[in-house]
Amino acid sequence: MSTYMSNKFKIGYRLREERDRLCFSQALFAGKMGVSRMSQVNYETGRRSPDAEYLFAASEAGVDIAYVITGIRSKAPDFYRMATVFVLERIQLRTGFAEDILSFVIEAIADAATSDWLSDQQEMQERPDVEWDMSAWIRSPGLDEMIGALLENGRLLRDVFGAVNAVLVCYGEDLRLSGAKRVSLVLMLYRAFRSADKVDHDVVYDAVRLAAARQQL
What we know:
By secondary structure, this protein is mainly alpha-helical. It folds into two domains: 2-70, 434 Repressor (Amino-terminal Domain) (Orthogonal Bundle); 97-216, no CATH class. Helices cover 72% and strands 0% of the residues. It has helices at residues 2-21, 26-33, 37-45, 52-60, 65-70, 79-95, 99-119, 121-126, 143-171, 179-193, 201-216. Helix 1 (2-21) packs across helix 3 (37-45) and helix 9 packs across helix 10 (179-193).
């Protein structure tokens, strides 16, 4: 029994190590996995073992599952991600921005770009002669506004992100938003809450449900 518990602890430790390597806050990673933050805490502390569905989602997010389970890496470390974490930590020290809001912004940009890229897949396959510029998908509408909001009131932007993600995590499969839709919704709510300088969670809940319903139309 003690060996079993020890293995669970090691798996949890390596899972947290991978999450840190990928530059995800605990809340943000839990949201991507479709679990609550408390479930993520339990997995990382070895109180519970993640199931196959969770491990598959983690692999899709870039986690080295072989390393998490066995302690042996199946591929070279992602030094780009590790460098991102290093830079974010230094920015946090110099500017006072919380590292989690910087991670939220980077993740939102990546999600929005991925969503746009996936929607263009058919056209890309039909036009193999065209040399596609990968950076084009980063220049999505709203991203400049998000950077402006970060510089204007990073705390409020973080609170809006957190409130939106909390609703999405709470309702799981019942509520889904693409990366681009999430960026648009966060910016809309940020503008709505800017004068009051605080988040109205009832408004966030209604806005997320409405945005998800419109996305399905």
